[in-house]
## 1
Amino acid sequence: MAKQHVVVVGGGLAGLAATMRLAEAGVHVYLISMVPVKRSHSVCAQGGINSVNNYTRQQGDSEWLHFDDTVYGGDFLQHQPLVKEMCDWAPRVIDLLDRLGVTFNRTPEGLRDQRRFGGTMYKRTAFAGATTGQQLIYALDEQVRRWEADGLVEKFEYWDFLGPILDDSGRCRGVVAQDMFSMETRSFAADAVVLATGGCGLVFGRSTMSMICTGGAAGRAYKAGVKYGNGEFVQVHPTAIPGTDKLRLMSESARGEGGRVWVPKKPQDDRDPRSIPANERYYFLEERYPKYGNLVPRDIATREIFDVCVNMGLSVEQDQLCAYLDVTELSPETQKKLDGILEIYEKFQGADPRQVPMKIFPAVHYSMGGLWVDYEKNTTTGGLVLGSQRNQQSNIPGIFVIGEADYQYHGGNRLGANSLLSCIFSGLIVAPSIENMLHSFSAGNAEDQPISLFDGAVKEHEAHADRLIKNQGSENPYQIHKELGDSMTRNVTVVRNNDDIKSTLAKIEELKDRYQNVALSDTGDWTNQNLSFTRALGDMIMMARVIAQGALQRDECRGAHFKPNFLTPPMDADDPAELHKQAQRWCKAFKEKNDRWLKSTIAEFTPDGPKMSYESVDTSLIPPRPRTYGLKGAEIIDEVWREMGAQAKTEQQAGAGTAN
Amino acid sequence: MAKTIPVKIKRQDTPHDGSRWETFDVPYESGMNVTTVLQRIAANPMTAEQQSSTPVAYDACCLEEICGACTMVINGRVRQACSALVDDLLQEQADSIELQPMTKFPVVRDLVVNRQPMFNSLSKVKAWVRVDGYHDMGSGPRVSEATQEEAYPLSRCMTCGCCVEACPQFNDHSPFIGPAAISQAILFNSHPTGAVDREDRLAVLSDAGGIADCGNSQNCVKVCPKEIPLTDSIAKAGRDTTLYKIRQWFGR
């Protein structure tokens, strides 16, 4: 019998976690990555990783509350069994990382230190300075190197994943990839393929994401038939540093450690910010959200910064939209914990954020949506059946998706410091699912499949590359990318209006046509980065359409998806009785909105564009509720919602009583 | 007309070809870095002499100086292209910017080099913590704040290659593994669980290409973008290998 192999595409936290766990089980892994895995985008994660811990537990925290914060933060758009299982595992995930030697910050007693992040009242976040993602990926990279030395892992770095290979029955039998140095294209026979290929920030031109986050790999899987879920849910991080090549993240940990967001009350006040007295500063997050303050979830912080800078005209500068993120008042010890990110600001902006408030503005940051994956619910625990072959498996048998590339865990908005967790968690749990699949394989191993299956796939991709190289057109791929990014950022990010989205969809169609006339400035057959980029550009245009189409169709506000024209009007009555009535109407409208829109968008590839459908969401563990985060003036909503819930329960019981 | 900056780039088509210089006049933008310069050239690969050329091949990933990908020699100094700001470079050297690939690794194409030898060195010194397995075994060992504060800076090494580029002892006729790998060996030796492989690491550092090959020029620590105290690690490695050899003489 031929040997069994697994291909893991992508060597960020998710891919490495899956690889090391598979290798531990004795499974041979081909690890394919566009960059040396140690340089994957996970290094950019700064703030930390969440779990309930001994400290928060004594304040009343629990796995359940972490779960509750996550689904409330995500506006209830995620399947709850997955989230519950993840939060239950979180303390164990962090223990494992600790054992692997991650240099977590310590308390004087030698325990792991924790900080607070957005969307929670608890200090759940373990961290290693302000470079936690880097420290975690290094720990996993080291483990995978150990398995590589033992011969269980073979790395193919600087290889570009071109697509899965499907047999006649539709099962995945391997992948085609291209060596980005020699440009050799070859197939890898594999009995399972794990896509851990991250997000698609480059669809928006500049974002906080790395240059490799094109969404190209996800696009190629989508084109091969993997469904794409909730594409329109894209996180825009509230605090990034504008730049000519990318928008650099300024971690939420700056606020977690006490940093405050403000603008001068006087528009474009040109005084030195340090000389502006406190009563002339508008600490708008603290004033509008007294409970969570600067640590409201990201979608809310982003919209408020946008509102203050754009709608109220209070941007710090005239010609560049920005607000202050101020850590100057923190103690030197606290500032030291933020050194990693403060250095970034200092290096790229040439000002010391310990002395001068930072100028920040929101930027595209994370793809909540992604490739569709299945799961098997454990009806006893409400979590997952661990080891089930359904977990993290896509609609194409043999293709699994993990990490940011999948569409689960974060719903409509991801909480800070939950992504490192979901990446590692999904990587760890996919391994036993794959092991079980390999053991129960009745379909014959991939290596036993006819050679023509693999050669045919390679030839197809070679022909595609050849077409791009020989194309005699006049369009510049970098120009098309710039126009795509500009239109997507303008119309499909923080504030969305249907007319604007339609104009972007028209733009995407135009760019798709112009892409047919694209001309490469490099037609060589050695380390041709022009080819890799242009190929990915085709995928970006395709994924932009999935994102924009999903956004157009979803006529509501949920998490990061905000359409002012479909906002339930806020209450404005002064009379308490009238206010109560307004709140009742608001809650009724909220319920109707959920009945209509609490569902995941599912896109399927067709040559004519995405075919859209919807999937209901498992909210069986925590019923959806209005997401107010203690907004000043909205207390009545929470009150009325509780009343309505209690009333419904009474009626239900009364109904049950009559029936008896 | 808007200001342009002459950018002189050492180019090489394949590992087997010779190199040549090409100059591109790149329009100046406020706040731009060398990565932006390379992006603008890719979008319009026209030399200063108005000859059409090919985009310059270069490595780039995070653009935040945390992945280590975009290391190259910029105005004669090894550093990351993303954090090399054009305004600063023009202050160092007013008339032009000069880009070359690192010289201590085989050139793949243009500014892309193959740094695989550095990753191989990490394997050689067993730069990992050998845990029993990935199942739940409770938390890791307690670590004092002082120990974490020593380990964290070493653990920020992004294998970018600056230290070995600047090291006179690291070259193709020497087996020297270089400062980065030595520092990683010290990092893992200092970890309570990592220390189980301590003697193996010291054996590698005591062997040919190990600590004895360090010429103490101290260039490494000057060019490290993360300000890792590499020379402290090297000094510690010197002491530890001496004690290791003494232990070997006494047969234990």
## 2
Amino acid sequence: MQLYYAPGTIAVATAIALEEAGLDYEAVRIDFAAKEQAGAAYAQINPKGRVPALAVDGGILTETPALLEYIAELAPEKRLMPDGIIDRARMREVISYLASTMHVNHAHKLRGARWATKPASYKDMKAKVPQTMTASCDFICRQGLRGPFVLGEAFSIADCHLYTICTWLEGDGVALADYPKLQTFMAAMEARDSVRAVRAKGML
Amino acid sequence: MTLRLFCTPGTAVSAVAIAPEEAERPYDTVLVNFARGQQAGAAYARINPKGRVPALATDNGVLTEATAILEFVADTNPAALLRPESPLAMARMREAMSDLASTVHVNHDHKKRGRRWADHPGSLEDMTAMVPQTMAASAAHLQAHCLHGPDVLGSNFSLADIHLFVICTWLERDSPRVGEFPALAAFMARMETRASVAAVRAAGLLL
């Protein structure tokens, strides 16, 4: 498998999951500074011009929630997803919130051109990011994170996703120190071999 | 298990209602009136503190997020075959659903829900004005990369078809160029022939 990624992006969540699953993969770095993600070569990999993309036998897969579950299914013995139907729904609920609300809030800091055309709008969007990310942290601490992990004691792929988004918080104007529950979660994640491996590879 | 779906016509809820119809699984509906701001009220906050629909009340608590609820319906009704067998096909299905939830639906929300991400009236107008363009780009993407045949997965019905159908019902209102996407139009016409879609339409959940 080849994982197309850029350091510090949401692709890190997929890398952590691959490490947790113990699957071999080649990390292929896409140079965002040189706009490689928007180039013709990368369009052959992912026409959306985003990371992550995972090349597997049978094709190229994109979208973090899909990749996380795919990886968990490839390594059932690692138990990266819960067995119970309700717990599985809870896990997916958090992953969907992270992908379609919290990540989207964050994206309004630097990706305003996706949704508006005027510099004044970008400035307005960027100014609101600390507020929307704070609201997302409040919500996650109240409804999404049982502690220490998303589903309580059991680790799951939702933790890979939440961890990666939380590495953005300081840059988004949210102090992790204001959220002791998230601090405990982040410390638990930093202690895992998967996160250490991804950090050692320079992906964070 | 009793299922109670909190819904507002014309929202992503219709997707969630089509799934139990496909599974022939009974459910109750409770209307949440957006025009009266009920989604932001104290009573609904006890159901879904995010103040959004859909929310599905089960015997084990309230579930939110369309993709999670759709998968829950598939998990609890395995005989309905709402998902494919192979991990690769499953990932394709989830790829489409994630794309719909976190890119296409988000593009659509910039028409009327810009206040989530900006404050100034000028920014909100700017966002609204760009929606026809982002939704036309989304439609082009969905037609070229999300439909792998007549259905999302080629010729196997799945949860992703339900999700795609509902989001495509917004295209006509969001983008004047939807007629340029014949494969999407054919997909929509086929979906309209399904009993599940007819039932949800008869219940007034599709606008």
